[in-house]
Design goal:
The protein has 450 residues and is of the alpha+beta class. The chain has helices at 11-24, 40-44, 63-72, 89-97, 107-114, 116-126, 141-151, 177-192, 249-265, 297-304, 308-317, 395-408, 418-425, 428-431, 445-449; strands spanning 4-7, 27-33, 47-52, 77-79, 101-102, 155-159, 169-171, 197-201, 207-215, 221-233, 236-242, 270-278, 284-290, 332-339, 341-342, 348-349, 352-353, 356-358, 365-369, 376-377, 384-392, 410-412. The chain has three domains: 4-103, Rossmann fold (3-Layer(aba) Sandwich), CATH 3.40.50; 132-201, ATP-grasp fold, A domain (Dna Ligase, domain 1); 207-449, ATP-grasp fold, B domain (D-amino Acid Aminotransferase, Chain A, domain 1, 2-Layer Sandwich), CATH 3.30.470.20. It is built from 15 helices and 22 strands. The protein has an eight-stranded antiparallel sheet, sandwiched between helices. Strands 3-2-1-4-5 form a five-stranded parallel sheet, sandwiched between helices. It has a three-stranded antiparallel sheet with strand order 7-6-8, with helices on one face. The longest helix has 17 residues, at 249-265. The protein is globular.
């Protein structure tokens, strides 16, 4: 097994990886920016190396500095966590060139699934259902109009290099298409340095349901059931649960088999997530593949009683998987992302010093976080500061436990999204499992929360 792993990330995911490494007897190296000098991942790792100033581009995205940290600490593997360099094929390639194991898929697999057009074409060849759409990139407005007529309105324009909702526009008729195309390409070019657009049928009343997969170097893949990630704001996930209240046994089997087929077709290695859109008739369509550990992986761990990070490390080392397909046992788990944001002010960022903190505890309650009383949340990174995960024998029990846990979660000095989650937990439609990705679109959250 690996002797020492460098964790090329920060915050709660860095801590999460450190914990599993300690249990496996693996030494850890934390890297940190000057803004994260007092972060817990720095304190709990066996070694720590400063890799630059606060901005991500100068530290957590600085490949030469990260490689230098790995060299001087004699690390033999690098775990990228999520975000930052986790889906950067060039970084994975550089790791290979320096005889460091990148704990993730191969550079070619990252490239293959990172570009949405290529990924969709690959899945089509694998026999996985995909949303009807353009065969390639849309060159101009005239081509967009032709493709939209072929597909049928409504359609959605998407940036091929996109993520986080940037470079996306829904078009309901031909009169809207020119403005939508111009705005989407401009936004995509500014955000990703790539203005390439493609078009898909816009799936109405969709659920965002993803299948967790694991695959070894010997061509074998398995899946560990689904997560429902439909509660989103501006395409950013806020709440995830396992299993999905929308799922049936038949649909789970169909989607699970499709996910395994997708992973084995590209000879995938490691952990990954196949993300699907599911319409109101329970037709499902491939959306994208995330070639890394997910923020929401704990809900799968809690329901399956399965350490995904441990499995990820073992797969990267070359150990085989059992090939067993894992279905949910008689448990339900839900995760609420706690962000340093003010939901009464359109989720405005709220960095600053935490003056008081008491995290939730009790049977079936898990809190993944890197914060503590006296810690100052820097303004340079993602606003997520904690994840509260609650597990129960039923969905209702898990929701009730989450309600209790969030009311017990005391955090002073900054604003957080806890009031939003408490409002959601008492919303009748959400409680009954009646929600889609558009659930929050028509809500005046500022008024509701006040």
């Amino acid at each position: 097994m690996f002797k020492k792993i460098l964790i090329a990330n920060r915050g709660e995911i860095a801590l999460r990886i450190i914990r599993t490494c300690k249990e496996m007897g693996i030494k850890t190296v934390a890297v940190y920016s000057t803004a994260d000098k007092e972060s817990l991942h720095v304190r709990f790792a066996d070694e720590a190396v400063c890799i630059g100033p606060p901005k991500g581009a100068d530290s957590y995205l600085n490949i030469p500095n990260i490689m230098a940290a790995a060299e001087i600490t004699n690390a033999d593997a690098i775990h990228p966590g999520y975000g930052f360099l986790s889906e950067n094929a060039k970084f994975a390639e550089i790791c290979e060139q320096h005889n460091l194991t990148f704990i993730g898929p191969t550079p070619d697999q990252i490239r293959q699934m990172g570009d949405k057009i290529t990924a969709k074409d690959t899945m089509r060849r694998a026999g996985v259902p995909v949303v009807p759409g353009s065969d390639g990139l849309i060159d101009d407005v005239a081509m967009a109009k032709i493709e939209a007529k072929k597909i049928g309105y409504p359609v959605i324009l998407k940036a091929t290099a996109g993520g986080g909702g940037k470079g996306m526009r829904v078009v309901w008729n031909e009169e809207e298409i020119e403005k939508a195309f111009d705005n989407a390409t401009m936004e995509a070019g500014a955000a990703f340095g790539n203005a390439g657009m493609y078009m898909e049928k816009f799936v109405e009343e969709p659920r965002h349901i993803e299948i967790q997969v694991a695959a070894d170097k010997y061509g074998k893949a398995t899946h560990l059931s689904e997560r429902d990630c439909s509660i989103q704001r501006r395409h950013q996930k806020l709440v995830e649960e396992c299993p999905s209240p929308f799922m049936t046994d038949e649909l789970r089997e169909q989607m699970g088999n499709a996910a395994i087929k997708a992973a084995e077709f590209i000879k995938y290695q490691g952990l990954g997530t196949i993300e699907f859109l599911v319409d109101k008739h329970r037709n499902f369509y491939f959306m994208e593949m995330n070639t890394r550990i997910q923020v929401e992986h704990p809900v799968t761990e809690e329901v399956m009683d399965y350490d995904l990070v441990k499995e990820q490390i073992k797969l990267a080392f070359g150990e085989p998987i059992s090939g067993k397909v894992y279905y949910p046992r008689e448990m339900h788990a839900i995760e609420c992302r706690i962000n340093a944001e003010d939901p009464t002010k359109n989720f405005a960022p709220s960095p600053g010093k935490i003056t008081s903190l008491h995290t939730s505890k009790g049977q079936g309650v898990r809190v993944d976080t890197h914060i503590y009383a006296g810690y100052t949340i820097p303004p340079y990174y993602d606003s997520m500061i904690a994840k509260v995960i609650c597990r129960g024998r039923t969905r209702e029990e898990a929701l009730d436990k989450m309600d209790r846990a969030l009311r017990e979660f005391i955090l002073e000095g900054i604003h957080t999204t806890i009031p939003f989650h408490l409002w959601l937990l008492h919303n009748e439609d959400f409680r009954s499992g009646n929600y889609t990705t558009k659930f929050l679109d028509d809500k005046n959250l500022a008024e509701e929360l006040k």
